[in-house]
Amino acid sequence: MTSPIAVAGVQGTDLSASHAKYERLIAKAKEAPASVTVVVHPCEETSLRGPLEAAEAGIIRPILVGPATRICALAREHGLDIAKYEIVDVEHSEAAAAKGVELIRAGKADLLMKGSLHTDELMRAVTASATGLRTARRISHVFVMDVPSHEDTLFVTDAAINIAPDLEVKRDIVQNAIDLFVEIGLGTPRVAILSAVETVTSKIPSTIEAAALCKMADRGQITRGILDGPLAFDNAIDPEAARIKGITSPVAGHAQILVVPNLEAGNMLAKNLIFLSHADAAGLVLGARVPIILTSRADSVRTRMASCAIASLFANARRRSTALPRA
C-alpha cells in the first residue's frame, strides 16, 4: 500500500517553512570557526556568489582557484567584492581542479568546493591514484535534503558517485553518511536500507544486501547508526505505512538516512523530492581527505550556502578529534 506522503507532494504545506532545517544548520555553522575552502573554477555568477555569501556569513574563508582575469571580470560585472580573498591564477578548469587538490594535499585548506566546471573534471583530480584525495574509505555522495512536508532532514545516498555499488561499497556509503549525520550534531541516525519491498527475497538482490548491511551493523562493521532494511520508501518515512505493513522497528516510518540500491534509484528519488516536493538539496562528497562541496550549476545560492554550512560543521568536528572512528 502506498502512503499518501509518498505521492501527495506539498499540497497544503506551508512552503515558507521549507528552509527551517537549513536555517538551523547555517546558524550553527556561523557560530563555529570558518573553514578555509578551495573554490575550484568559480567562473559563473552563482558559483562565485555562493561562496562569497558563505564567507560574508563567517562560514568559510575561500581561496578562489581559476583564471584570475575571468574571475575578476565576473566579480565586477555582478558587483561582487573579492578584494580580500586570495586568488590562485590558473589557465583553465582542468588546471584549477588539479591545483585545488594540490592545495588540499599541502594542508592549505579544510574543504574543497566545486565551481562552474563539470563534476567529472573535478572528481578525476580528486580520485587520481598518485595525486588525489583518496583514503581507505570509498568516496560517496550525500544529498542533505530539506523537504517542506517532512519533519526531519533527510539524507539520500548515493545518488551521484557510485553507479552500482556492491555490498562492501554500500558499507562505506552507509558509514560515510552516518559519520556526517553524527558529526554535524544531528544525533544518532535512523538508517533505512531501501528496496522495492520490505521482505528479503532472492529475486531482488538489493533486499539481500540490505539484510546483510543490517547484520554488519549488529556485528560492529557499521557503527554509530541504527539500521533497518530492506524497507520500501513509504514504510521507511511514513509511520502509518509501516504500521499497515506490520513493521515494528525504531527506523520504520522515521528514517533519517535513506540508502538507495543504486545511483539511478537515488538520482530519481532526490529529483522527485526536489521537483515535486520543492525540497532543497545540499550536496557533499565524503570519504576523501576533506569534505567536498559538490553543488550543481543549477543550484541556488541558498543551497550552496547550506552545503558550505554542513561541510564546515563536518570539517570543524574532524578538527576537534584527531580522526573519525573507523569501522
What is the element layout, followed by pairings?
Elements: H1 20-31, E1 35-40, H2 45-56, E2 60-66, H3 68-77, E3 86-89, H4 93-105, E4 111-114, H5 119-127, E5 140-146, E6 154-157, H6 167-183, E7 190-194, H7 205-218, E8 226-231, H8 233-237, H9 239-244, E9 257-259, H10 263-276, E10 280-286, E11 292-293, H11 301-320
Parallel strand pairs: 1-2, 1-4, 2-3, 4-11, 6-9, 7-8, 7-9
Antiparallel strand pairs: 5-6, 5-10, 10-11
Helix pairs in contact: 1-11, 2-11, 4-5
How does this structure look, described?
The protein is an alpha/beta fold and 327 residues long. It folds into 2 domains: 142 residues, Rossmann fold; 143 residues, Isopropylmalate Dehydrogenase, CATH 3.40.718. It is built from 11 helices and 11 strands. An 11-stranded mixed beta sheet has the order 3-2-1-4-11-10-5-6-9-7-8, with helices on both faces. Helix 1 packs across helix 11, helix 2 crosses helix 11 and helix 4 packs parallel to helix 5.
